[in-house]
Amino acid sequence: MSIRWTYAFIDRPALRAGPAAEFWTAVTGTRLSAVRGDDGEFVTLLADGADACVKLQGVVSGGGGAHLDFSVDDVPEFVAHASRLGAETVGEHEGWAVLRSPAGQLFCAVPWHGESVRPPVVHGSRLDQVCLDVPPSRHEAEVAFWSGLLADWESVPGSLPEFHVVKPPAGLPVRILLQRLAEEGPVSAHPDLACADIGAARARHEGLGAVFVAAFGHWTVMRDPAGGVYCLTGRDPETGGVRRRPE
After folding, report:
1. What φ, ψ does residue 9 adopt, rounded to 5°?
2. Is the pLDDT of residue 247 over 90?
3. In terms of pTM, does the model score above 0.85?
């Protein structure tokens, strides 16, 4: 079934939600909505002149991570579709549901409210990807699950053998990268930003309180002021594709 819109949800410890919100609004050039939820745990990062595609959640246990929300016309139909593919329903709420993939990654089905305008590139970067870090024994099945769930998306091998990309149709703002970990462990997730210049993005983020963790060939791992890991990638922020390096 068709996905109408996608949201990247940044999950951070509730006690660090303030610094997380300050950092991520600066990074994405957005402003905060009013808080909502029974405990004020949810907030949306609003983009002027465009529809939001990033939200923030304060979690009461664990270090946080990331997850995806899928906006659809018919939430029960989407939940049934996901269940047939092996997902588990974790929680049912008024109008929306929380599910868990076969490997254990949480995601949500929410109603579509007409979102259609993608936020622009800001300061040479765009938060456009959620990376699922999957243990090797679960990776193949998890790729099959997300490819089946998002059947009208493009499911293709990534730039390295350990990567697999599930790309949405043009206009949807958030895609999925599945990374096969080297060792067994629980599945986790983090947000990725496509950057025109990783070095410039790193310097700006460090000025906002982020900390450098590690650098690899095409991406740099960072830690935000709330302690959450994310990556700056060398993908084109307009297209999401990997830019070819000069010969």
Report:
1. -100, 120
2. no
3. yes
